[in-house]
Amino acid sequence: MAAFLRRVVRATPIASFSGQSKSSYTNFRLPFTAIAAISGGVSYLYYCSSPNLVHSQQVEEESKNIALVPEKWVEFKLQDTARVSHNTHLFRFSFDPTQKLGLDVASCILTRAPFGEDAEGKPKFVIRPYTPISDTESKGYFDLLIKVYPEGKMSQHFASLKPGDVVEVKGPIEKIRYTPNMKKHIGMIAGGTGITPMLQVIEAILKNPDDKTQISLLYANVSPDDILLKQKLDILATSHPNLKIFYTVDSPTKNWKGGAGYISKDMVVKGLPGPSDDTLILVCGPPGMMINVSGEKAKDWSQGELSGILKEAGYTEQMVYKF
How far is it, in rounded angstroms, from Cα 88 to Cα 199? Predict the structure, then answer.
């Protein structure tokens, strides 16, 4: 288990288990010109007679290599778990090693678990969204970083799972679709497990040598011990000059060298790129932080009105995205 956790916090992207299996998968003596002529004629006839057939076959082939089904709950088996902090665990789920999960950057999944019955005796479910922290290109597995709350119905369900148990998943649920160099500067404000979509975007940028995006992350937690995947984040920042990270905690220890207190306007002004058409600020965290920093989403889960520190600092709604 310790070896698994070390791989998770150090790897970029998070590596698959060393024991994970990997699957492996008449010549006609015709003159080259004849082959070319025949191939060209068949291709022309094929495309002209059914132009949508090629596309539909490509889509079908791609769908076979994707584990998620958008409109259907799919069971994924728990492979292993690891404790990341006193109340946060990493869960690795496995599936066909020839398939990808099927997420874009940055999107999430829905999970559900049975939770009693309704008045008619039908099962009720608790449903929660989560953003995997494993690389979107990974095959055969995905990782969820989950904080277990005493009253959290879904997080308590995850905490009760044992290797071999399954969880139902549906998706992907697209948030903001990241494309390389879409903005010159991306600022991020995260609290607690709100780091998960940020990590997805960070790793997509850093693994692409053609992506020159500058990233600035403000990451808030209760205490130094609550900072999730700090070693991994520090390694990424040390090895990539276009990633800058500032940590702040509510309850600093004597040896703490980062910031103290909630995210403030001063932290935003000093630590994030200034308001600009070439700037995007991503925000994800608990409700209290969201209210203070950007305002919460609207009741219909649309972005809602921008308020809080980011509005005071001069950012507009077009410059901010709330996960």
Answer: 16
Q: Is 135 exposed, middle or buried (0-12, 13-18, 19+ CB in 10 A)?
A: buried
Instruction: Give the phi and the psi of residue 298 in degrees, each rounded to 5.
Output: -70, 170
pTM to 2 decimal places: 0.79
Hey, what amino acid is at 31?
A: P
Q: How far is CA 184 from CA 14, 200, 243, 269, 299, in A?
A: 26, 18, 13, 17, 31
pLDDT category at 51 given cuts 50, 70, 90 is low
Q: Return the SS3 of 291.
A: helix
For the record, the structure tokens of 173 come out as 């649920």
Percent of the chain with pLDDT over 90: 76
Residue 208 C-beta-side C-alpha neighbours within 13 Å: 18
Task: Report the alpha-carbon distance of residue 263 to residue 241 in Å, rounded.
Answer: 23
Q: What pLDDT was estimated at residue 29?
A: 36
